[in-house]
Amino acid sequence: MNEKEKKVRSMKTRGMIADTIVHIVLAVLAFIWVIPVAWIILLSFSTQKGSYVTSFFPKGYTLNNYIRLFTDRNILDFPQMFMNTFIIACCCCVISTFFVLSMAYCMSRMRFKMRKPYMNIAMILNLFPGFMSMIAIYYILKVFNLTDGAMIRVALILVYSGGAGINFYIAKGFFDTVPKALDEAAYLDGATRFQVFTKVTIPLSKPIIVYTVLNSFLGPWLDFIFAKVICRANAKYYTVSVGLWKMLEKEYIDSWYTCFAAGAVCISIPISILFVIMQRYYTDGLSGAVKG
To answer: What is the CB neighbour count within 10 angstroms for residue 201?
Structure first.
């Protein structure tokens, strides 16, 4: 064996050792990440009541926690909370996605006088968390009678989707990678700007659309702060985050703790389904963009 072959074999050996170490580290991190998820799932089937759990694995398994979660409506109406959140999240998903993509396309393709100052202002505003304005937003909604009754859903939709357009930076960066030559070719064929946006840019932008849709859905689905401030004591219009928080209050935790775990599992199902469905379009969008 000559010196060159020894060097190649040594490099392969070092590469295999490095890959093995990386895989071991990733496996350990994945195991640590899965532990809380597995514990919540096991706890949702536990027969043990109260928040003082003595072991990782339940001493008994039952479906009563899920049954009670959807049938006991005397204190906390989880099905109503779930439906409230689902309606709000779906509406916000559609509105926010439209706002974000429209803003991103305008900032990427159009040139106007205040474009750069506006982008700088948007970047600065994104540095501040949205809940800093929740008191002002609440009183504005109160002036328009949007904090009582069925209008609470409308108020939450307005809050979650109203300022969504300011989060256009990531989508704009993706639109910047779409060749402008495609737009110019479409204009030569007589297409309008809206037709270029819907028939040229959007079909090539499925990955960023998937990202935007997921973020637009997850925001209302998981938010607690604005939902708590706007819903206040109107239990009929609680979202799932507020409802799960109520289950951990002092007067409910002993009897609703395992139901809280069941509710945590239930609210993860729509997110998982949406991710599985949208993931297919994500991969299709990547292949379409390469072909384009």
So the answer is: 20
Tokens, residue 206: 């499925």
Residue type, 157: I
pLDDT tens-digit profile, the chain (292 residues): 567 677 777 777 888 888 899 999 999 999 998 998 888 898 888 887 777 777 777 778 888 889 988 888 777 888 999 999 999 999 999 999 999 998 888 888 888 888 888 888 888 888 887 778 888 888 888 888 888 888 889 999 998 888 788 888 888 888 888 888 888 888 888 888 888 888 888 888 888 888 888 889 988 898 888 888 888 878 888 899 998 888 888 888 888 888 888 999 999 998 888 888 887 776 655 444 444 4
Burial 2-22 (b: 16+ CB within 10 A, else e): eeeeeeeeeeeeeeeeeeeee
| Cβ–Cβ under 8 Å, residues 240 and 194 | no
Category of 149 on φ-ψ map: left (φ > 0), alpha (ψ -120 to 50) or beta: left
CB 152 within 8 A of CB 226: no
**Residue bearing tokens 């030569």:** 188
Amino acid at 101: L
Of residues 89, 130, 83, the one with CA closest to residue 217: 89
Instruction: Using the structure block, give the residue that is written with the tokens 């074999």.
Output: 9
H-helix segments, the chain = 3-44, 64-71, 78-109, 115-125, 134-143, 151-162, 169-177, 180-188, 193-196, 206-222, 225-231, 240-247, 253-291
